[in-house]
Design brief:
The chain is mainly alpha-helical. Helix content is 67%, strand content 2%. The chain contains 10 helices and 2 strands. It has a two-stranded antiparallel sheet. The longest helix has 50 residues. The relative contact order is 0.08.
Amino acid sequence: MELLKLVGLLVFPVILVLVFLALHFFCFCEDKNINNFVRRIFVINEGRLHEQYILWVVLLLPVFYFFALGFPIWSQYKLSVSARGINNFFSISNDIFWVAGLALPLGVLVARMHATVQMYAQIQSNSEQNIFVNFYKHKEFIVKEIKDICEENSLELRIKTDIYDELFPANSPAGPFSTALEAKVVKVIDGELIRLTEIANKHSLSGYGPSKDSHLNGDEALSDVEEFLSTSWFRSLNLVSSKQAPTWDTVSEQNKWFLATDIYLDLHIALLGIKQIGHK
C-alpha cells in the first residue's frame, strides 16, 4: 500500500503536466497529431518562448511535486488562516521548498537554450537570404560577361536555354551556391576546344593564311565550322556567328577560308573566355 502511495506521488505530477499540455495542444494547435505533440514536449524550436512545452514542463513539474510531497505532511494538520498557521506552514514545508525552487533555474536554462535555437535560426535565415541575393547577382554578372564575350568576338547569343544553368547546373537560389565552374562543365568546354582545334588543324585555319602545302578548300572549312556551331555544346545556346551568310556562291575559295578562320578564332577565344568566367 505504501509503495502504491509512493508511486502515486511520483507519477501524479507528471500526469497533471501532460494533461495540461494535452489540453492546450488539442484545443489551440492546428496540427493535432500525437507525434507532433510528443515532439513539442522534447524539442525546442525557434517559436515564441511561451509556446515551448518543455518550458511549462520545467516550471510546472517542480511546483506539482512540491504539492505532491507536501500533501502527506499538510494532511496531518488543520487549516488555519492566521499568522500562527502561516508560520507553521512554512516551518513544516521548509524541507520541500527547494523542490518548487527548481522551477526557476530550470526555466532560465530552457530560456537560454531557446535563445540559442533562435540565434541559430536567424543565422540560417540570413545565410539563405545571402545565398538568394548572391545567386541572382552572380547570374546577372555571368550572363552579362558571356554576352560581352560574344559581342567582342562577332558572335550572337540567341539563348534557347538558360546559359547560367548550363554553366552552373548545381547552383540554386536556395543553395548550394558556387562561383566556380563544375569539373564536368570544364571538361565539356575542353572537349569542344579539342574538336575546334581538330577542325583548325584539318584546314590549316590560323591568322596567318593557309600554308603553301595545304589543300585549300574554303567550302569544306566553312562547312565544318558551321557544323561545329550546330552540333557542339553551343547548340543549346543557339550561338551563331554574325559573319555567317545564307550563301557563299560568289565568294572565292580563299575568302571562304579566311571567313572560316575568322569564325574559328572567334569561337576559340569565346570558349576560352567562358572557361575563365569560373575564375572571376
